[in-house]
Design brief:
elongated, 32 strands, six-stranded parallel sheet, Immunoglobulin-like, about 0% helix, mainly beta
Length: about 600
């Protein structure tokens, strides 16, 4: 699908940051309703601190959570995956118009239909993120960029777009910006309770679960050792470790907890690691890293669960590096430190990074590190076995090309924390599962195909000139230039073949030599080989009627004259020798028609 983007200018809200700290660069809003008939989103919780939602600009629509839970009874399978529903789906769309309340967007209407089905309910969340453009066409970073931290409703995504060369000299990250790890356990203890209490209400003897792709609203699902989708389970009494979050691979199980001896609880009271989402993950369906479950504590020495890594979407024609030290792009999960004489928290899982990049120009002297690693679980700092935290599962990195040279890619599983202070560790919590770096994926055709520089229309002399440029094309069959006088009914003016699949810059032109008088509107319709279509932004033209339009030139017989007062028009026709020529004329549909078909070729 070829979609439409604006490469012709830098957004007016672009701020050149100069300090060394990461800056959030996107705007975010929660979607509360979707009207597919009018392509309108209703939004609230709008955050425009870094970037605003403006007409003509682009947004990412993303389903962060959905009703995907399988088993909900208090058994070991609690928190399993049912249908994946729409969790993780996303797409790029352009804003046609929007309304505001108290200076913030209330509704956003899109230029084209929404492609996926997004679900909005108590256990689901959908957000929109500005697809922030940098460069016109090229851009060199001036500071580090980051995602806004996920707050349970919005955030967790860094989405940027450069139509030319994006030269990276700073860190770009969504580290620890994904699903939240569990908060602290209140502090109590019962007998060793492994093999039971997979879900329960928050209480002193059972630690809370981390967040995942199902928004929990039921109180008795908050705590207990069962995972909740890709969120790690909490440690059970007594001092069980929290489970690590999952993403492309599963998180590790928490350590067993204390039962009065060096051997630990049996069966284990450690939280179960968050699920692997590998079979559901794709370049078109992406997930934040799951949060880790908290360790259970009775001496106020347990640790919280770690936050998962967020999501990074980068679209550019080319990526190059300029700084030669410490240039990274990362969506890592959070590691957990020592837990003291209680259960350690589970780590956050790595997030997701998507590159839709045509060319990479990373030199050996200025390498780049890209990572979506799981964090390491917390360690219990005590002689007797308690509960270390589970390691976070690895994230995933998607490339639209073969893996680039001079780029180090990492999707590492987090390491489980030790359940005591032995060295080397003799009782270690589970690490993230699967082979390290299994999450490095490519090449794929990604869902970020904002390829059109822009669509322009202007009144020049006796015609309306339209033009557009594509930087690349995917599955593009043809374009149709359309015109309207009322913004509702559109007529096709010209069909122009596309390039099919191309990575080259292509310029297109079409002149409407018989424009309407007064206001008229122009847009571009793009159609794929499979029939999918998109529309560009609409361009308004006002023709005051003072011009005289003569077309086509050259002609193979008929010439047409359009003017506001056609009846009062006087004209003569001369050949190249200056001799007056008599030809047949007629007036039809507001146009004067001149028949040259009987004349010889010439001027």
């Amino acid at each position: 699908m070829l979609r439409f983007g604006k490469f012709g200018f830098v957004f007016s809200v672009l701020v050149m940051f100069t300090n060394a700290h990461s800056q959030v660069v996107n705007g975010y809003a929660n979607v509360t309703a979707i009207n597919t008939g009018t392509n309108t989103l209703t939004v609230n919780n709008v955050d425009e601190a870094a970037d605003s939602f403006e007409d003509g600009e682009y947004i990412v629509i993303m389903q962060m959570q959905d009703t995907v839970i399988g088993t909900t009874t208090d058994v070991v399978g609690f928190g399993s995956l049912g249908s994946i529903a729409s969790a993780g789906l996303y797409e790029i769309r352009q804003i046609l118009s929007h309304t505001e309340t108290a200076g913030l967007p209330a509704t956003i209407t899109l230029t084209s239909p929404i492609g996926a089905t997004y679900n909005i309910n108590a256990n689901a969340s959908v957000q929109i993120i500005t697809f922030r453009q940098f460069g016109s066409p090229n851009f060199t970073t001036t500071s580090a960029m980051s995602a806004k931290k996920w707050n349970g409703t919005t955030g967790g995504v860094l989405a940027i777009y450069c139509p030319g060369t994006l030269t990276i000299g700073h860190k770009l990250d969504a580290d620890f910006d994904g699903f939240l790890g569990a908060g602290p356990n209140a502090g109590g203890a019962a007998v060793c309770s492994g093999g039971a209490n997979y879900r329960t209400t928050t209480q002193v003897n059972f630690a809370d679960k981390g967040q995942g792709i199902f928004k929990r609203t039921t109180a008795n699902q908050a705590a207990g050792m069962g995972r909740i989708l890709n969120g790690g389970g909490g440690g059970n009494s007594h001092n069980g470790g929290g489970g690590g979050g999952g993403n492309f691979s599963a998180g590790g199980d928490g350590g067993p907890g204390w039962n009065g001896s060096a051997g630990g609880c049996s069966p284990s009271g450690g939280g179960l690691g968050g699920l692997s989402l590998q079979t559901s993950s794709s370049v078109n369906r992406v997930f934040m890293g799951g949060g880790g479950g908290a360790g259970e504590g009775n001496n106020n020495l347990a640790t919280d669960g770690g936050d998962g890594g967020g999501i990074i979407l980068i679209k550019a024609n080319e990526i190059a590096t300029t700084a030669c030290v410490g240039v990274t792009i990362s969506a890592n999960g959070e590691s957990i430190a020592f837990a003291g004489n209680d259960g350690g928290g589970g780590a956050g899982a790595g997030g997701t990074i998507v590159f839709e990049v045509n060319t990479w120009n990373v030199t050996a002297g200025c390498p780049l590190v890209v990572s979506a690693n799981g964090g390491n679980g917390g360690t219990a700092n005590t002689g007797n076995t308690h509960g270390g935290g589970g390691g976070g599962g690895q994230g995933v990195i998607y490339y639209s090309t073969a893996l680039p040279s001079n780029v180090t890619n990492q999707t590492l599983n987090g390491i489980g924390g030790c359940s005591n202070n032995s060295n080397p560790c003799n009782n270690q919590a589970g690490s993230g599962s699967g082979l390290n770096n299994a999450g490095i994926q490519g090449p794929f055709t990604g869902p970020l195909p904002v390829e059109l520089v822009d669509f322009y229309a202007s009144l020049v002399s006796s015609s309306v000139n339209t033009s557009w440029t594509t930087m690349s094309e995917v599955n593009n069959d043809y374009f149709i230039v359309q015109r309207s006088v009322d913004y509702e009914n559109w007529e096709d003016l010209e069909k122009i073949d596309g390039q099919g699949n191309s990575a080259e810059k292509t310029n297109y032109f079409y002149d409407d030599r018989a424009p309407h008088f007064g206001f008229s509107y122009y847009r571009l319709k793009q159609v794929d080989f499979d029939g999918q279509l998109e529309y560009s932004a609409v361009r308004e033209i006002y023709n005051d009627g003072n011009g005289i339009f003569v077309y086509p030139n050259p002609t193979d017989g008929m010439v047409y004259i359009v003017a506001k007062n056609l009846e009062a028009l006087e004209f003569n026709v001369f050949n190249a020798l200056g001799q007056s020529i008599t030809i047949q004329t007629s007036n039809s549909s507001g146009q004067l028609q001149l028949d040259f078909s009987n004349l010889e070729n010439g001027v």
